[in-house]
Every structure is written in C-alpha cells, then in structure tokens.
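Appendix C reproduces, verbatim, an entry submitted by the partner laboratory led by Prof. M.T., so that reviewers can inspect both the input and the predicted structure.
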Amino acid sequence: MSGQKSVVYCRTSSDMQRPESCDDQEREVLAGLVRAGLIRAGVSGDDIVVIHDEAESGTKTERDGFRRLCNMINRGEVAILAVDDQSRLTRAANAFAFIQDLVFAGGRFLSTGEGIDTDTPGWELKVQVLQLHHGQTVRDLRHRVRRGQHGRVEADGSAGDFPYGFESYYLDPDWAAQLKRRGPKPKKGLRVCEEEAVWVRRVFEWFVAGTSIGLIARRLTAEKVAKGRRASAPGWHPQQVRRMLANEKYIGKWAWGRTETIRDSKGRKKQTAATADRRITRERPSLRIIGQELWDRAAARLASLGEKFGYQPGQRRRGPLPNPADDHPKSPLGGTLVCGVCGAKMWLRQSNGRRYYACPGAMKGLCDMTTRAPADRAERALSEFLVDLLRGWPEWMQTLYRLTCDAIRAAAEQAPAERERDMRKAAELERQIHNLVSVLADGGAASPAITARLREAEMEKAEIDRRLDKPGRNDPAKIFLPDESWVAERLGEWAGQIPHEGPGGILRLALASARAEPVITPGKKRGFVRLRFRLNAWRALAAALGDALPVESCGLWPKPSAGGDDGPEFMIDLGEPTAMDRWAPQIVAWRAEGVTWEEITRRTGLDLNRAFIAWKRLQGADEAPPAA
C-alpha cells in the first residue's frame, strides 16, 4: 500500500541496562529482515523507521515510542513491524490483540529472534504462547523481588520503605569494593537520620501544642527544610505532614506488605490491600524517634480532628475538584492550548482591551514562556486552517474513515457471537450471585472474601447487561456506511460552523492537542508564538456523521479519543521575524568580512542604528556604535 513504512521497534526496560542495547536490537532486527528478503542489505535511515523506548517497562502502554507506533497503525501507515523478540514490543496481556489489530490494518508483524511472521499460518498460537510466557516472567520477577524484600524485613534490614527521618547505610565496611565486583550487592541497614529526625520531633511538638497541620507545612517550607531523597516538588504539603503524624514507624513499629501492586491490560498500576498472611509487623525500638507520651497526645488530637472534620457516613467523597474553566470554558482555546516550555495549560487574559493566552507559570516567574499568544489571531488562524483542511478531505482522513468502516463491519460480523457469549456469561454470573447470596444468608456474612466476590460478580454482570442493552448489537444487518463523497460533504458542512462557534464549541472538539512555542531571536527577550497542533480526526468524523447514521451504525462506531493523536502535526506562526531579525545573521557575516556600516545600510535598507542593534543582538560583542 502506498505511503506505508517498515518500522523497527526497540525497547530497554531500565536505565541500568547498557545504553547500546537498543542499537544492538536494531542491528539484529535489520539483519533478520535482510535474511528474510524484506529489505535490501545496506538499508539507510530513509528506508525504514526506527522507534526507540528507553527505560520503559513492557507492561505499560503509556510509552512515547509505543504511542507513536499505535498512532501510525491507526492511520494505516505500517506495512511491516519488526522486533528482536515479542517481549520488546509488550509484556502485557494485550500482545495478541495489538498484533491482530496491526494485521487488520494491513500490516505485518515479525519477531526476527523468535521466527514469528504473521504471513505464516499458525502465528496466532506462537504469539499467544509467548504472551503467556512473558506475562508469567513479569509475575515471577515480582514474586522474587517481594521474597527478597521479605527476607530483608525479617532481618531488620532495609527494604527501601523508610520514611522521612531515617536513612539506609551499608553494613559491610568494604561495600565499595563489593559494588565493583560481580555478585550480590552489599547489604544495607537502617538508622535514624538525626538531621531529619530533629524536624520530625519539632512537627510533633508543634502539633501537640495546637498548631494546625497547614501552618506546620508552611513553617517547614519557610524554613526551607529538605524533604528527603524522594522529594520531587518544592515546599511541604499538609498531607505530607499528616502522614508523618500518623506513621507508627516513628515509635518503632514497622509494618510492611500492607498493600500489593496490580496492573490492568494497559500496564496501569494501583495499590490493593494485601491479605493478612502477607503482612509483617516488626518492633524496632532502636529506630524510635518519638516518645510514647508525645505520640499518644498527637494521636488523640488527630482522632479529634478526624471526628470533627473527617469523612462522615453518607457524605460525598472528597477529592480534587474539576477546574470550572474545563467544564465551562470562556474562550475557544483556554485550557486546550498548552505552554510549549513547561506544559501548563494556558488561559485567556485581557489587558488594555487586548486578549491573549498566557502561561500561568510565566506570570509567577516559574516558566520562561514570557511570549504571549494573541487570542484573536490564534483563534482566527486555527479556525481558517481547520476549515480549509477538513473541507479538503485530506488523504490521511480518508484512510482513517476507511479503517473506521472496516472496524464497524468487523464489529457487526462479530456482534452475534459476542452477544451469545455475553448471554452465557450473564447466566453464569446470575447463578454465582444466587449461590453467594445463599451462603451469606446462611451466616457467611463474616467472610470478607465472599462479600468481595459478590460485589465483583454484581459489577461484572452490570457491565455485561449494559453491553447487551447497547443499541446496534441486535441487528447488525442494518448497518449503513455512507460513501466518501457524502462524508467529505458532511465534514465540510460541520467544519464551516467553526468560525461561528462559541467558547468550547467545535474548535475545541476538533483539536487533539495545541502547543504554543516561543520563537525568539538571539539577544531578544520576546518574539512571536508558533502553534503546533494535531486534529482529533476520530472525534471530528464522529461529530460530523454520528447524528446522520442509523442507530445500529452508531452503536458500533469506535469510541472517539478523548485527546488522541490521530493526525499529522501542523504548524502556524502567529508572527514573523522583523527585518532586523532577518538581516542580523548576514550583517554579522558582512562585518566579519570587513564590510563597512555604510555599505551594510545600503544593502539592507535599514538605518544605521537598526543595523547596528541587529548586529549587536546576535553578535553580543562590545563595540562602540558607529558614527552617524
């Protein structure tokens, strides 16, 4: 297929691996492709796309290179995807689904080190077996790491779980020599860090004396107290102080293994409570920092504050509230446009009748993005560009629509079988729920395991019931898919509404991302803004067509990406270099050749003062200004 590329993907799991590992993988993959006759020997960088992910776990899908690869596949740009072995691509439980989607999009997958080729019959079994193997490898590694940590905790050593006020140290005097040798690492112990323990005691004393947790945090910040080895943000937060006041390790009671980490199919992690048999509590009086009387008084005050201000039965759960400007935008780009320097959301500001988007960090002196984006010009430029682009029905959007149609047809074909599976699963869950309720009714209410299993079964059945009631699964034969000319016309009509929209309308919907970068000439403090943005093509297609398609089609339409990277990146400059900026490099070169200022002003058309300032900004040299 024209426009498709061959892609080599390489990954290292940790920054402790050799930095040349990705290069080694690339060399092996290219050699395997040459042997297979899929590329010629002596291939250059122009012939193949190489994507690297370094120090990234294979259980995660949120990797920069992997995300770029997924976007290329979604756009139908990948003809061949080659890896050294399948675990470099992913160790998660989605390997087979990912490769199946690649093949569905017209691509071909090869694992040169394992002999997998999706053009060879039977590849599905190999991929699924290796998926199970690589997933079990990760679970075995997790088990071995936990087993080692368990042993260190039982021996009152360091498992890396010590809070502020403690530090680890090497037990062996020749630890430096052991680190240089091959073999096990030297063992570490734990001890009180007196420099930090002084502040721990002071926090407890302040709190018992009646000082609020918020004021304690502000005092620590004002005193510029270091937050310890794990700190990543400046200043103390009240929650950090509260966790300190409730941490029993400060009275020598060390609990370990209360939670375990679990992952979903995309590699996202969360902590869950561990079973009682996997938890350990050690008494370590030598590590006690806070006396018992002071601890008891602090615990009593914490309990009193919890009863007064803590969560009450029936009360809405607390947590970070959404930014009202995100839900009710007052400008087309506020919160959508981000700073190209620090990544913060840029918001609309007004001054002397001028509207502009500014980085909040720059206004606080935390970001160097002092260049502001003129609001009227940015909104007008983006609107005009998107209208012209969508009315032109670009080739990459045509490809995306074809892939969408293929996905809808495939979903329609699978719908009867999926519905049958869901109905069987729903019946099985109904039977399980009935049995669990019977057990609880007979006196099993004291079992947390039974209660938890009942809750899981009810949630799973509710999700299946929602799928069974979803429109479009009952009669896939009624699927209607319009031709591309009709789609192009509808998309053009939809795009034509962009210039007339209100805040938070079509312009925000059409943009997947928008970034404002400063373009500043050397020697100057401000310049103009360059916008880099991508179109969320899935959302644009769904918004333009969704209300015109039958219900059966809408039920199978792929869910639009909330912020997906669905198209190529575009760029718009909201300004241009001045005549002085354009001529500055040439003026520097002429001066180096000995050209006179009089001749320079004649060649450039600049007056003498402006020509000299342009030269000085770029050159940065000390030279007396020329005489007029």
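The radius of gyration is 31 Å. Additional entries are available on request from the coordinating office.
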